[in-house]
Amino acid sequence: MQRHRSGGHRAAVRFRTAGLVVLAVHLLLVAWFTLRPLDVPWVSAANLHPLAGIRADLALGWRAGGRRIGEGLLLLAPLGVLLPLAGGRLHVSAWGSLLRTVAAGALISLGIELLQTGVPGQVVDVDSVLLNTVGVAIAHAAVVPALRARLRRRPDLAPLPREEPAQGPTPTIPRVGIAP
């Protein structure tokens, strides 16, 4: 457990609280956008073949295809920053943080796709899971390491040095041999 100076503790709690609030708002907006029923005359079949939807989007042309791919990348990309911010830890492994964040983003995206199976007008697309996960990874890699480094340099967020126990080190007792 990290101990912070009283001002640093308050600052860390503020960052974490702000991260949780913005994360909740973002997830509510994503749920509204992706899970609301749509009034459409027909619905295309579900795409369960990886990269088939991306190829079809690119076949539409760079402009239309790029827009659809960009929407897939950007939908959950803020989670790449908001999940670590809500976690509130500054001193963690960069690779471990990336792996946890990408895994959480992939699970959230998969959950959204599974929930869409029961929503009229919404179609399941495995490429959405791939694009959303890549978007989370790109956002995390682009922002979080630099943000954590900057926050670690703030003096009010620096951890206190470890203190030795008041009694000193624990004494050791030499082994006693067994009598013959």
From TrEMBL:
<dbReference type="InterPro" id="IPR006976">
    <property type="entry name" value="VanZ-like"/>
</dbReference>
<feature type="transmembrane region" description="Helical">
    <location>
        <begin position="98"/>
        <end position="117"/>
    </location>
</feature>
<feature type="region of interest" description="Disordered">
    <location>
        <begin position="158"/>
        <end position="180"/>
    </location>
</feature>
<feature type="transmembrane region" description="Helical">
    <location>
        <begin position="12"/>
        <end position="35"/>
    </location>
</feature>
<protein>
    <submittedName>
        <fullName>VanZ family protein</fullName>
    </submittedName>
</protein>
<feature type="domain" description="VanZ-like">
    <location>
        <begin position="24"/>
        <end position="142"/>
    </location>
</feature>
<keyword id="KW-0472">Membrane</keyword>
<keyword id="KW-0812">Transmembrane</keyword>
<feature type="transmembrane region" description="Helical">
    <location>
        <begin position="69"/>
        <end position="86"/>
    </location>
</feature>
<dbReference type="InterPro" id="IPR053150">
    <property type="entry name" value="Teicoplanin_resist-assoc"/>
</dbReference>
<dbReference type="Pfam" id="PF04892">
    <property type="entry name" value="VanZ"/>
</dbReference>
<feature type="transmembrane region" description="Helical">
    <location>
        <begin position="129"/>
        <end position="147"/>
    </location>
</feature>
<keyword id="KW-1133">Transmembrane helix</keyword>
